[in-house]
Amino acid sequence: MTIEKLSSREVYRNRWMTVREDSIRRPDGSSGIYGVVCKPDFSLIIPYEDGAFHLVEQYRYPVQGRYLEFPQGSWETRADAPPESVAAGELQEETGLVAGRMTYLGHLFSAYGYSNQGMHVFLAEELSMGPQQLSPEEGDLVCTRVTVERFEALVREGRIKDASTLSAYALLRMHRRLEG
């Protein structure tokens, strides 16, 4: 049994997202509404070398705080761009890093209780440094390198709270044993 969509209407749109409200019928026959945030999938990159990750930290307006996370993003102007191109571009834009090897780890949904957005997770290795190319929205972004052990401590300390980062880390751990 599934929820049946009876009708749908767009209630908001900007260049990053669309919000729609669906009239629904639940499996028990009752009716209701469901709000859905529609966003294009994004790419999340885990830059890893010598037992350490490269993380980014930036201010996240909705939660009014700065937190560490793996580099991630989408291209609003090119929603049809291949995820691996987005991953390579976002990695270089945010960190200045270029990966000699990029491994696809899988696709996850970021918050499927209210959004259709998913993420493509990549492991970036054989890294070389180049220039950052930050967008105006990323002007306060800072890069930092942390060991795997320090990464896990930062999670316990509440300095890493990004669900996308944590689920990507879990996916990475399913694929490989990490040193460091």
Number of E-state strands:
10
If you compute it from the alpha carbons, what radius of gyration comes out, rounded to the nearest whole angstrom? 18 Å
Measured distance between first and last alpha carbons: 47 Å
The CATH architecture of the largest domain can be given as: Alpha-Beta Complex
Number of domains: 2
Q: How would you state the average pLDDT, rounded?
A: 92
Strand content: over 45%
SSE ordering: EEEEEEEHEEEHH
Q: Helical residue percent?
A: 10-25%
Structural class: alpha+beta
CATH class of the largest domain: Alpha Beta
In CATH, what is the homologous superfamily of the largest domain?
Nucleoside Triphosphate Pyrophosphohydrolase
Number of helices: 3
Give a structural overview:
The protein has 180 residues and is an alpha+beta fold. It folds into two domains: 4-38; 42-175, Nucleoside Triphosphate Pyrophosphohydrolase. Helices cover 19% and strands 45% of the residues. The protein has helices at 83-95, 148-156, 163-175; strands spanning 4-13, 18-25, 31-38, 42-49, 52-60, 65-69, 72-73, 97-109, 118-129, 142-147. Strand 5 (52-60) and strand 6 (65-69) form a beta hairpin. The termini are far apart.
Task: Give short descriptive properties of this protein.
7-stranded mixed sheet, 10 strands, 3 helices, single chain, Nucleoside Triphosphate Pyrophosphohydrolase
Topology:
Elements: E1 4-13, E2 18-25, E3 31-38, E4 42-49, E5 52-60, E6 65-69, E7 72-73, H1 83-95, E8 97-109, E9 118-129, E10 142-147, H2 148-156, H3 163-175
Parallel strand pairs: 4-9
Antiparallel strand pairs: 1-2, 2-3, 4-5, 4-7, 5-6, 5-10, 8-9
